[in-house]
Every structure is written in C-alpha cells, then in structure tokens.
Amino acid sequence: IDTQKLAIISENKIPKFSFINQDSNIINNNTYQDKIYVVDFIFTTCPTICPKMSNNMSYLQKKLSNKEKILYLSHTINPDYDTPEVLKKYAEKLERNEGADISIWNFVTGKKDDIYEIAKSYLYAVSESQEKETGGFIHSGFFVLVDKKGRIRSSYDTHGNPIGVYDGTSIESANTLANDIE
Questions:
Q1: In DSSP terms, which residues pair with 108 in a beta bridge?
Q2: For residue 10, what are the CA distances in angstroms to 1, 6, 78, 152?
Q3: 106-141 b/e with 16+ CB inside 10 Å = b?
Q4: Does the global pTM surpass 0.85?
Q5: What sign for the dihedral angle of Cα 165, 174, 145, 51?
Q6: Which of 40, 56, 66, 179 has the fewest CB atoms within 10 Å, i.e. the most exposed one?
Q7: pLDDT of the chain along its 182 residues, tens only?
Q8: What is the pLDDT at residue 97?
Q9: Is the dihedral of CA 26, 28, 30, 34 positive or negative?
Q10: Cβ atoms within 10 A of the Cβ of 160, count?
Q11: For residues 103 and 126, what is the distance between their CA atoms, to the nearest angstrom?
C-alpha cells in the first residue's frame, strides 16, 4: 500500500481477536500479521445485501489475483446459525458459482458479543432486528481495508476527505478498493 495515497483512518490497530473459520481452524490476528486484508460482516441467510457483498468480494479476489497475496475475512453476524459447517457450505458455493478462492478467504464465527465488539473496531454497525425483510439483522454493507500494520486505510473522496470504508454492494467501489490496494 502506498502510504502517500491512502489515509490512515486510525493509528489504533485492530484489537486482538480469535474466531473459528469454515474449516474449524482458529483465526486470529496472527493469521493476518504483516498481511493486507479486506474485511466484511455478513450472514448466510441474508435476504438483502450479503449475497451481493460476497459476489463483489469474489470479484475483488479475481481482480487482484496477480498481485501480492491479499487475504479476505468475512465475519458472520448470526453465529447462532452460521456454524463452521454452514460457513463451509456457503464458501464452497461461492467457490463453485463465483470462482472464489477460499484458500485465502476466511469465513468466521464465534461468540456474538465478540463479533459485535470487533465490528466496532472495523467501523461497522451490526445489530439484531425484528424486521422480517432484513432477515433479523441490520448491518453496514462495507468492505474495510486493513494494512500490514493492522490499521484501517482508505482513499479520499472528491473533497479530499478519507472515505474510511468501501461500499461492498457496489462494483464501482470494489474497483476503487482494488485500485487503492494496487
């Protein structure tokens, strides 16, 4: 990442975390140490934005496949349902239908309080909802870029302000993120 072109959103590093991925392996800060990675928060039964976000993450992977190894991290916001087995099926479907590389993409679950707490560190809003059309959850549709030092990075808007996060539902925003990573 060219530090001259991207804003450091916070000098604070992402705090320590530990979750279980789709292969029932422990995924923590050490997994991403000295790596650039892209983060989002989804749930496998989402009736709204999550499928588009996952498709755009797959697109991003393909677009950056010839670059330095970039890693990907999707947290479920519905850990009561999204077990490692459920996440594995979801990942395999993305691999089969979208060409996702799940060898560099972790889908993680854990304690709901831990997931919702780490979401704040990634500038994410997540909550449960009584709204049937949301599938019982409300969340931001962002992709978050984390640098090799564990800090959130972003480009700038047309007014020179750091954007902070990228719209995970927008292919244009995914292209901006890819360009920023390059």
A1: 21, 75
A2: 16, 12, 27, 6
A3: bbbbbeeeebbebbebbbbebeeeeeeebbbbebbb
A4: yes
A5: positive
A6: 66
A7: 444 577 777 677 899 999 999 999 999 999 999 999 999 999 999 888 899 999 999 999 999 987 778 999 999 989 999 999 999 999 999 999 999 999 999 999 999 999 989 988 887 777 566 666 655 556 678 899 999 999 988 888 788 888 778 889 999 999 999 988 87
A8: 95
A9: positive
A10: 7
A11: 26
As a whole number of angstroms, the distance between CA 117 and CA 62 comes to 30
Instruction: Kindly state the tokens that stand for 153.
Output: 């990075």
Instruction: Write out the two tokens for 168.
Output: 């995970």
User: Is-contact 142 148, C-beta < 8 A?
Assistant: no
Q: Which residue has the tokens 């072109």?
A: 5
Alpha-carbon Rg for the chain in angstroms: 15
Structure tokens at 56: 């755009």
Q: Is residue 140 helix, strand or coil?
A: coil
Contacts of 120 (CB under 8 A, 6+ apart): none
